[in-house]
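User: Please predict structures.

Assistant: First:
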Amino acid sequence: MYFDLLTFAAFDIFLLKRPNAAQDYTVELMKIAREIADGMTQEQADALVHNIIVVTQGFISGVIDGSVKDPKKVFLDYLSRYKDIDRDTLRQNLKAFLDDVVPVAAEAGINLCVHPDDPPFPVLGLPKIVSTYADIQGILNAHNSLHNGFAFCVGSLSARPDNDLSGIVTDFADRIHFAHLRNTRLLPDGSFYESGHLDGSQNMAELVKLLLTEQRRRIAEGRKDVRIPFRPDHGIKMLTDYNHSYNPGYPLIGRLKGLAEIEGLMAGLEHYLNKT
């Protein structure tokens, strides 16, 4: 629920020791990361490595689990597979994929929706190509079909301060096929944390209003895929959530609270739109 850029840099540069990692950080950030790494006990350092490499990989059904004797080496080996893959190459690969699957999706009546990068900036030396307005525009233009769309994830896109989320919805609304509605709060050092659903750096009421307006436009246009499915996405632990071992971000009560908040927001906005 919290991306600590400074501690992540300490992991990347001084614990993982990824080749050329220092080039991705400012001198000041490196200095702080060094202090963080030097201040860790061996037990704390091992726990950080385990959480980032093993626990995170397990959460996304990755290939590195607790049975691996040297997870740092295995992780570095996997990262090295991308050493010749830059942003342009990754974009070309995605376009080749879309050229093959979009016509099939259109024939089957399926809407494809790529999820934004999370976080929406490079980490571990890996290029990111679904992070900005320009990235989304490029993907949609790569195959000009309503079946080639994207998932509007407020949480992911909002972790980058130069992203104008209202502008993204306004300009690409007809290609939004899924909405992930959660919020983040950005910190001065580049870190961010999930702050709930209604409270955060983004005006959730404005974004939901734009999505509801797009649904009304689709009805008037006669589209069959009128409704934009949404999920409250992540949630913050509360009440009995602390008695269970849920995956981070997926507590039952916390997510139900977020769902209720978004549903209430939608009901109020629908009432407003019906009067205008």
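Second:
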Amino acid sequence: MLPARLPELASPESATALVEQLLGDPGIDGVKLFTGSWATRDRIVVMPTDVVRAAVEAAHRRGKPVFAHPSNSAGALAALEGGVDVLAHTFPAGPAWDRALPRRMSEASMALVPTLKLWPWELGRYGVPAVAIERTQASAEAQLRAFVDAGGQVIFGTDVGYMTDYDPTDEYLLLQRAGLGFPRSSPR
């Protein structure tokens, strides 16, 4: 849960107005939308695509990027169809994820900040059993692998500030476990 209630975008018009207002502040460099928001422990509310698209268009008119927090496949699809630039987090919530999304995201030049460390941290603080955490983590890693295999751009990042663990080491290790590594250069 976030420490404060965020504004809700109820219509394309309200999305446009809020983004224009926020980006009027010279200290604001981008927008993050919760295209999939946890309403309760068991329910995710997905932002309508037309609302996402209006927010994205307003930000892009000012040359600013848009990030999205998807929570599940439906939230990722809303971000994709709305034209979001960067998906901030994989989307392992739910029984299954749409396996076409990583390829479609790559084709749309949407980047991904996987934040793999977020899932064990978040689920652990809610007392979720280890087997369920591992299943969620495996799903997040599979999404990342599918995205990379499709040629997608990965951006390193963590949820530091939301998470209280500021050490990025676990994120690097989880990226490695998901099959990522440094490109090897050819010998000279």
